[in-house]
């Protein structure tokens, strides 16, 4: 028997929708303008929300941007669950795709800012660990990897590190053509490694 | 018969030494304080050079920091030439090492700043291409990889992308223990892939 959730009031629905708009606008803003150009005001305006309403949901700039990267990362991971797992190249390409869009660009700006901003540092370390664990879990599931076999855990970790590196290589130029060739080759190598 | 270089005057030697001190101080400053905290004045002070002398060598902030990353990257690549190539794990570890020290941290700050600073953008793209080509060349040489074999080029590229991803994972926390395990496993995969 499931837990019965009380029906949401229109006010709760509106509040939830506002929150989501803010989170999505925050990731887009960070990806486009970097940390220096991303404030609660800029995001509120982009989301069509008053500054007061934005601050009600997210009292500080750090609250807003860490919550935004976490939320969008969850959405992206969740979307991967429906993926067809029969084609390994397709799976590797989708995993690498987690690191080549606006989400990774936003996360990268946040990571790098955290290196020099004490008020971000601890929160981003926590966020990185959480998002990293979830990406690893999804990768193991999609690749059908058996982590009880020695080396398999590190094979999957290395693949996700490679995906992160490919994301970095895509920051200033469109690296899609080279990336597809690397993905194709490493999908073959992974097939052998995970057999 | 070699070309005879005229002997350097003490003044030229001093100028060259000043330039090197500035370049090394610039990389250290960028690695520690990020782009926002790195100016020609801060670097001049760190190097013990007057601001005027620093600007004589590097008229703009962009000149100084792109030259610094290029210089230190060249030094690091050059140092790898003497490496013992018989142990693949040792070679992979050394290549990954190119991406986990202050040089990579400095380069990362410059890459990310370039995403939002038009006056840096084109210069960092050029720098990235140059440093990337050199890292690839060194990797091929150290791994004894035969790029005429289909797939080998992409295998080496993927390894360097992984190294870049491992560098990123080391930005906020000390990731050395996990990194060593990934390097050990991927050295094994490379052995099979390059055989």
UniProtKB/TrEMBL annotation, chains A, B:
HTH tetR-type domain residues = 16-76
Per the record, DNA-binding region residues lie at: 39-58
Which key words tag this protein in UniProt?
DNA-binding
Among its keywords, does the record have DNA-binding? yes
Q: Which GO terms describe its molecular function?
A: DNA-binding transcription factor activity; transcription cis-regulatory region binding
**Coiled-coil segments on the chain, per record:** none
List the signal peptide residues: none
Q: Quick check: keyword DNA-binding in the entry?
A: yes
The highest taxon in the source lineage is: Bacteria
Protein name per UniProt = HTH-type transcriptional repressor AcnR
């Amino acid at each position: 028997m499931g837990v019965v959730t009380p029906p949401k009031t229109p006010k709760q629905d509106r509040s939830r929708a506002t929150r989501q708009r803010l989170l999505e606008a925050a990731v887009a803003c960070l990806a486009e303008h970097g940390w220096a150009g991303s404030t609660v005001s800029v995001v509120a305006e982009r989301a069509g929300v008053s500054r007061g309403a934005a601050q009600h949901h997210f009292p500080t700039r750090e609250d807003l941007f860490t919550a935004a990267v976490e939320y969008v990362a969850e959405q992206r991971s969740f979307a991967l669950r429906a993926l067809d797992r029969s084609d390994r190249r397709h799976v590797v390409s989708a995993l690498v795709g987690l690191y080549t869009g606006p989400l990774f660009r936003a996360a990268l700006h946040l990571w790098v800012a955290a290196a020099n901003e004490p008020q971000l540092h601890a929160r981003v370390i926590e966020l990185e660990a959480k998002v990293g664990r979830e990406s690893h879990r999804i990768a193991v599931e999609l690749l059908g990897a058996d982590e009880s076999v020695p080396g398999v855990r590190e094979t999957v970790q290395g693949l996700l590190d490679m995906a992160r590196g490919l994301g970095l290589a895509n920051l200033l130029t469109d690296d899609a053509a080279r990336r597809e060739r690397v993905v194709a080759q490493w999908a073959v190598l992974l097939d052998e490694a995970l057999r």
